Amino acid sequence: MDETALDSILEVQEAVEAPDDFVANAVVSNPAAQRASAAEDPEAIWEAAANELEWFRPWDTVFEGDPPDFSWFPGAQCNIVYNAIERHLLTWRRHKVALIWEGENGDHQAFTFAELAREVNLLASALRARGIGKGDRITLYMGVSPQLAIAMLASAKIGAIHSVVFGGFSADALRDRIQDAKAKALITADGAYYRGNVVPLKPAANAAADECPTLECVVVYQRCGVEVEMVDGRDIWWHDFVAGASTEAGTEVMEANDPLYILYTSGTTGRPKGIQHRHGGYMVGTYLTTKWVFDLKDTDLYWCVADMGWVTGHSYVVYGPLLNGATVFMAEGAPDYPDMGRWWRTIERYGINILYATPTAIRMFMRTGEEWPNRFDLSSLRLLGTVGEPINPEAWRWYDRVIGKGRCPIVDTWWQTETGSILITSLPAEPQKPGSAGLPFPGIEADVVDKQGNPCAPGEGGWLVIRRPWPSMLATIYGDHDRYVETYWTAVPGCYASGDAAVRDTDGYIRVLGRMDDVLNVAGHRLGTMEIESALVAHNAVAEAAVIGVADDLKGQVPKAFVILSAGMNASDTLSNELRDHVARTIGKIARPDSIEFVETLPKTRSGKIMRRLLKAKEAGQDIGDTSTLDPMSFADEEE
Ligand code: ATP
Ligand code: MG
User: Fold this and answer.
1) pLDDT value, residue 640
2) For the segment 417-426, what is each residue's pLDDT rounded down to a tens digit?
3) Are 117 and 54 contained in the same domain?
4) Which is the closest atom of ligand 1 to the Cα of 425?
């Protein structure tokens, strides 16, 4: 099979300019100048950002090494928590609100930076008193709550390595991750509210902990007040754990390249990888990208809807915003509970200014109608973002028109658990092209290349790679450095291989075409999944679509589409033919699906990404492999 280039068939969208008043007041109001200076000296941009933060000892040099092994700011000492909390205590931000949280049941909590510091110190002192410290691993298994952020920060403050496991995962998935990290402590909760019910976390935590001999203690936060089984000598309530602990806790001095956390990937393409990030570089990367991409100002109330079990929750709920001294909003629960108005009511009630969401959620809201958002006052919003999957132009335009009312720039941010921070997105003051993530962040050398590493011409698809390391780049896969080298550094010579397919247009805008593993080969044409799916979703009968390649004697492969219909639409052969023709008409005959299967659900990870490999395996009658990160609700049609 020829693996050099991909065909890109989707029409390039016209650029949408940011409103003039937005540009005039933007944090980066002269993006072109930033890009020019970053192109000249990519390290200078990171060094300038590092200089805006506090270090216990300065770096000897900005960058050193030879990928796959390298270090940022070697010789420097720091602690990300000092910058996320303590440095603000010395300024007017001491009494500024750092976190506002709304529980699904209406509960409410808010913390100023001073209050947050106190909570973090109490937990940090208590952990230290239990003999937990620098280099020890702590697994966190909780719902979206300030306490999860506090547990992350307390771990990092004492130099321990946190590993957050998404609260919706099963006992087995939790056990595997605790065992992989050889964690010494587990911090969990009795439960969390989700769609009107209490999701019991403690029974799963117990089942997992029983098989994890490395665990010395299990700390349990009382969120819901449900009855739980506590194991004598191992388990302790959070409130008892911190009772009597000191409100002063020294901040561990870390080398810039000491590990900060481990986080397992979504597992869309296979067995999840324990991605390891470090204090110094990750701090600089998340600090600067949050400030520039979200145009973050002290007056903003910023809401990233991601669960903290994912990297987005690490970089853009907790670390990036707090490093910037921002006020972060977080909410427990589902976007569609108690009704489709949850997000829009929340935006109106709190006056949210910046919303960072996912294409999956936006498509769900499109499907259920704009009456819901239209009932609420969304005029506080000034910037919108998306992450997690390619956003099809139709969803982008809906987000722009119905939510942003045409006033708010939309940043489509491409990045990965591995990258730690956003790598590709046009800055908000720059023109945006619906469906394209946009330009690389200043200082990031992204490229689209063929298998040999040669740049592809504009309009020609290939491998999305990054040519030089960036500060928040992963250090390794925890406990498996060989897998790290093999996964990211062998596919394309000398480059970090993202595993995604992409195409660049003549303006340098990058559009992600899907995952390399999912690329179809139809009669010698290599097609990404995104374009065909995007064409399908552009039809008003289609709410969501996933495309895979199935074997064909004549053409090698032909596209097969799985389609969820919009409300009120009925499946029929006529509609199937119409949709197939629609794809052929809008993007070309080569992309016409050979067959369409109408489904109620698509297999997705818990973070809302479509798992095409499951559709492929099922179609080919193969074993579906590791499904530990599958959302069981999303594969309801899977019958044994
Ligand atoms: P695994 O690596 O285990 O298969 P995963 O790749 O789903 O899991 P994440 O790190 O959570 O785990 O997801 C990163 C991937 O999400 C990217 O490689 C890309 O495929 C997709 N992605 C994220 N943001 C965007 C975006 N803005 N546009 C297009 N794709 C995106
Ligand atoms: Mg990945």
Assistant:
1) 32
2) 999 999 999 9
3) no
4) 27
